[in-house]
Amino acid sequence: MRTFVAIEIDNQEILDSINKVQSKLNIKAKPISTKNIHFTLFFLGEVSDSVSEKIQESLGSIEFHSFEVCIRGVGTFPKPSFPRIIWVGTDNEGGKKLTELASVVEERLSNLGFQKDKPFKPHATIFRVKNKIGNISDELKKLETYSFGIQKVFEIKYKKSVLTSDGPIYSDLQVVKAKQ
User: Is the model's pLDDT at 180 over the cut of 80?
Assistant: First the structure.
């Protein structure tokens, strides 16, 4: 099964703001359904049921305190002149806390042989770009400091992803709650 570790964005005001930005950006790209918007802390890819059980054991040992992240700004990977992913970012403090949590997840899963293929960059994908759409720097410039709202982070989720022609279907395999 295809799996990843994530923090979901579930604040409805933020999701509504993201939806509004998705509607306003006049680009030929596939918007991500707001029910699927999240921060991926670690993408694991295909794993067997037995490995999935070990992942859940490792993730279950993670202890963290809840924190807040200000969802702010819109950017692209790899660059605005050739976007493949359009994302929303975070404030510095919230981004730092997400990065620290992603490092803890990576450290726990490294014991099982998992390694990240690139450094963690706090972002939540809001569009996937299949075909070349040209430079969107001007459109993004207007949104680089746009504030979507504050997301409270109180759990991390180990999720399964089933790819369909209508987009991925995510389901929770495990929820790890923050310490009170």
Answer: no
Rg of the Cα trace of the chain?
Answer: 16
pTM above 0.85, yes or no: yes
Domain span at 83: 2-177
Q: Which of 72, 97, 123, 157 is catalytic?
A: 123
- Say whether 65 is catalytic: no
- Between CA 142 and CA 22 the distance in angstroms is 14
Position 113 scores a pLDDT of: 93
At 38-60, the pLDDT tens digits run 999 999 999 999 999 999 999 99
Domain total for the chain? 1
Q: Which helix (H) or strand (E) holds 98?
A: helix 92-110
Catalytically annotated residue among 18, 22, 38, 70: 38
Domain CATH code at residue 70: 3.90.1140.10
